Amino acid sequence: MIRMRGRLVVLQVLVVSLLALLAVRLWQVQVVRGKEFVAAAMETRTRDVVVPAVRGQILDSAGRPLVRNRTRLVVSVDRTSLNRMEGNGRVVLQRLATVLDRRPADLRERIRACGPGVARPCWPGSPYQPIPIDDHVTTREALQILERQEEFPGVTAEVQAVREYPGSTAGAQALGYLQPITQSEMEKRAGSRTVFSGVDLVGRDGLESVYDSALRGVPGLRRVQVDRLGKVIGVERQVPSTSGDTLITSIDAKVQAVTEKALADAMKSAPRADGAGAVVLDVRTGRVVALASAPTYNPAIWTGGISERDYQRLLSGKAGKPLVSRAIKGEFAPGSTFKVTSVSAMLKDGYPLHGQYDCPGSFMVGSRPFNNFHGIAMGTMTLHTALVKSCDTIFYRAAYEQWLRDGGLKAKAKTKEPMANMARAFGFGRPTGIDLPGESAGRIPDRQWKKDLWAVTKTDNCKRAKSGYPEVAKGDPSRAAFLKQLAYENCVEGYQWRPGDAANFSIGQGDVLVTPLQLAAAYAALVGDGKLRSPRLGWALVRPDGSMVKEIKVPVVRKLPISATERAYIKGALSDVPSDGTAAGAFVGFPMNKVKIGGKTGTAEVYGKADTSWFASFAPTDRPRFVVVVMVSQGGMGAETAAPAARKIYEGIYGFTPTGGPAPAALPAGRPASEPPMIKRDGTVAR
């Protein structure tokens, strides 16, 4: 009995102790940490839903849409929610696949994270945002998901805006594309003024990238109350999103279409052509009227996720790397189109403007003969005729003489290098600064560049001078022998700026590289007011209600270091090229009495490939409004491929048929738009 009472006492003490402990714990929870737990409880009953902003449109200079939004029903999946379910949401995906008439494996591929070794389709964005898996959903399919939400946890179906490209492939590289923002990008930009949300798409290239912050707008926020199952039971707070600004560009959609077709035709006309680029500039303002590259692609391929096959094609050299804009990124030897800088350098160096110059069929540069085209001698002529007939030997002589005055192989302590410095003054050797990402700088070689290159390549050249090129010798012994000899020369004296380097430079050959855009900007300055400008595609940013945010100015970079008289002389010579010079054959039948074209052909040799075809031009010659530059890689002679393509662009702009008759004109007034279009308060364009 006593033992029993002892046990009851122990039990009573234990119960009292537990009650005391519970009381202390309740005091801690309710009093000491009460506010903390109340906040936590409230947090579990609310959810912040980001409301994406409608992205701004991209319009042409007449207000026509280049990129616009189209509403579609989009089904998205929360991968985090699926991974918390049994079997990582396998049952839910199977149900979803049945509704969407898709294979479950396809859906699983779309929601996996992109990374090394992961083929597309995959998800390149943040793992914490809804992943769109189908943007072509019917209303019936969406209702099946929404009305049976308990069977599709983590799955949403809602109307979203997706990008649409009315011009299909037109200007694809200039416009760019969108991709989901990655988690690392969100973390990097967490402290910036730019607001990002987990459901944002960001520009990855072109105008979409450069003007991303303005186009994207500001996401809204909707704070909702949910029950323990996550079902919405009320809205606690709502902040509306702010639509992105509309970007008005200087591109004219009709001229762009004409330019794209001219490039496509040029590629077809040259069997070995592997790429082309074209630029149409407004001479007076420096604004871009058209910017095209071939081969091209349709940016809509990115919408809704891209397949591995399509992704690899965009990057494939065999397909011509359509993702790359040859107009701003392609670097090629410019051939005789470059002679405008060589003439300018000669004039700056004291050669007489109205002097007489001998044009032999061949000229000895050091110990090596440098020949005219087909070795044709053309007698004595002016610099005007030298440009019209494209005499090479006059430029070889001038370059050789300048090279000797700089000390030849034993360079002076301070060299003038007139041609290299003039080329830089024309904007070559550095990016133009256009409002597009990834622009190439080109290359202007000189004595210092040669030394720097030698320092980097000496070890490899000396090694190859001994071992040769056995991998090349198997298929082409003569080329292997040439490469071995070249490696030896570069090993021993590769630091020297040889006379042949100077001669090749003078006619845009050798190591000189330019982009079509650089050449267009240089010609616009030459035939315009002498001011070199940094071209712009963006013209103005306006709010959806039409109010102006800002006008995008075209910066003036510098003034060409030649006089107005010298510029007029060179322009006069170029004005005769399409009618009486190297491009005359390409412009037979063109109504020069209505619109006279000026320009310069270029045929640049490339070892192991067909020549690069160039034509740099302007019109009308009396008061130029347009500069048109066309480049076709492996297109052959400039007069064969590039010049005919430029002619088609002018025919489209002014409204001429190939026989010179009238046709619908892309620009009936014969000039680009002088001011951006007005946007009404309802978002429509005032015509």
Automatic annotation (TrEMBL):
Keyword Cell cycle attributed: no
A Gene Ontology term for the protein's cellular component: plasma membrane
GO MF annotations in UniProt: penicillin binding; peptidoglycan L,D-transpeptidase activity; serine-type D-Ala-D-Ala carboxypeptidase activity
Stretches assigned to the Penicillin-binding protein dimerisation domain: 51-235
Subcellular location: Cell membrane; Membrane
Pfam families, A to Z: PBP_dimer (PF03717), Transpeptidase (PF00905)
Domain Penicillin-binding protein transpeptidase: 277-651
Biological source species: Streptosporangium album
Entry membrane topology: Single-pass membrane protein
Entry keywords, A to Z: Cell inner membrane, Cell membrane, Cell shape, Cell wall biogenesis/degradation, Hydrolase, Membrane, Peptidoglycan synthesis, Protease, Transmembrane, Transmembrane helix
Annotated InterPro entries: Beta-lactam/transpept, Beta-lactam/transpept-like, PBP_dimer, PBP_dimer_sf, PCN-bd_Tpept, Penicillin-binding_protein_2
Amino acid composition bias (Basic and acidic residues), ranges on this chain: 678-687
Low complexity: bias regions: 664-673
Entry protein name: Penicillin-binding protein 2
Residue numbers spanned by region Disordered: 664-687
SUPFAM superfamilies, A to Z: beta-lactamase/transpeptidase-like (SSF56601), Penicillin binding protein dimerisation domain (SSF56519)
GO biological process: cell wall organization; peptidoglycan biosynthetic process; proteolysis; regulation of cell shape
Main location, first listed in the record: membrane
Family as reported in the entry's similarity comment: Belongs to the transpeptidase family.
